[in-house]
Design brief:
Layout: H1 3-6, E1 15-16, E2 21-25, E3 28-32, E4 37-40, H2 45-54, H3 61-66, H4 73-81, E5 86-87, H5 93-97, H6 102-105, H7 119-124, E6 127-132, H8 138-146, E7 150-153, E8 161-165, H9 172-183, E9 187-193, E10 197-204, H10 212-221, H11 240-255, E11 268-271, E12 276-278
Parallel strand pairs: 6-7, 6-8, 8-9
Antiparallel strand pairs: 1-5, 2-3, 3-4, 9-10, 10-11, 11-12
Bound molecules: zinc ion.
The site of zinc ion has 8 residues, from α10.
Length: about 290
């Protein structure tokens, strides 16, 4: 679709934006969102900033323009092009009420704005099968449900995602999650709350070269990797809220096919207190009895 086919389309839609700050300095507009800082230059920066002030999430962009001197449909397009606004209908009222809308905002730039309004219906058609420690992730699951996502306990027919919430010790749930992933087209997300932070990954897409059995067999064979399952905590440590937010956002990304590439074939080990990130690699096990030959 050429740009011309889309011109003016977003102008008819309600725009929303969650700025943490914006202003004009030395003729440049500096706009800060929770996810980025943009610097815009040129003659049109004043209408852009004025439009941001008017945006309320309900009013069609074309009506917003009428309140701002010199604003044109091109200014609306520019706001979208710079990922400074999104179609307000991307995030349902239920999600806003459950305070999880902002977890979608960061991935909306990866979705074409003309499709933003379809996101709530897409989420309502998707499901997550949960294995392992459900208590630690109950707030994650309730947010997914607020977005309309179906959450099932354990094996289900055709999940879109499999969440393995790891427990302290390896349990049967790890094998069952692996089987569920192998038997379906789901993407598997492995997650663990630890004493100092959390551990995500690897995220196994349907075509990933390794499976959960490979991962744990490698861990067994590697003394350094042994740390991978010694630190799980239960309850609500101080970094629990940040863990819940991060895992919720990750699952939304997986469900909407925006899997972060940095979780391909590696773990992300985050230390909330040291603010450090490590990314141990994961390799397929030669002749894995579970995934060999898929
Ligand atoms: Zn395997």
């Amino acid at each position: 679709m050429s740009k011309d086919d889309n011109s003016g389309l977003m102008d008819s839609r309600p725009a929303l934006y969650s700025p943490t700050g914006y202003g004009i300095h030395d003729g440049e507009a500096v706009v800060r969102t929770p996810h980025t800082v943009k610097t815009l230059q040129g003659a049109g920066v004043e209408p852009l900033i004025a439009l941001l002030e008017e945006i309320d999430g309900d009013t069609a962009a074309s009506e917003l323009r009428e309140r701002v001197a010199d604003a044109t449909p091109d200014h609306i397009d520019a706001l979208y092009a710079h990922d400074l606004v999104y179609d307000a209908r991307a995030i349902s009222a239920d999600m806003r009420a459950a305070d999880c809308g902002h977890m979608l905002e960061s991935l909306l730039p990866a979705i074409p704005p003309e499709s933003h309004h379809e996101v709530p219906a897409r989420l309502q058609s998707l499901s997550v099968a949960v294995f392992g420690n459900r208590d630690t992730v109950s707030s994650v699951l309730s947010r997914l449900q607020a977005a309309g996502v179906t959450v099932t306990n354990g094996t289900t027919a055709e999940p879109d995602a499999v969440l393995l919430s790891e427990q302290l010790e390896r349990s049967e749930s790890w094998d069952r999650a692996n089987e569920q992933w192998i038997d379906t087209d789901a993407t598997l997300v492995k997650s663990r709350l630890t004493a100092t932070g959390w551990r995500f990954g690897p995220v196994l897409t349907p075509t990933a070269p390794a499976c959960v059995n490979c991962v744990y067999s490698r861990v067994d064979a590697n003394k350094a990797g042994g740390r991978l399952y010694t630190e799980t905590v239960t309850g609500e440590p101080p970094h629990w809220r940040a863990y819940v937010d991060s895992l919720t956002e990750l699952l939304f990304r997986v469900l909407l096919k925006q899997v972060p590439r940095y979780l391909d074939e590696q773990f992300v080990v985050y230390d909330h207190y040291e603010q450090t990130v490590e990314t141990p690699r994961v390799f397929a096990l030669p002749h894995c009895e579970v995934c060999d030959g898929i």
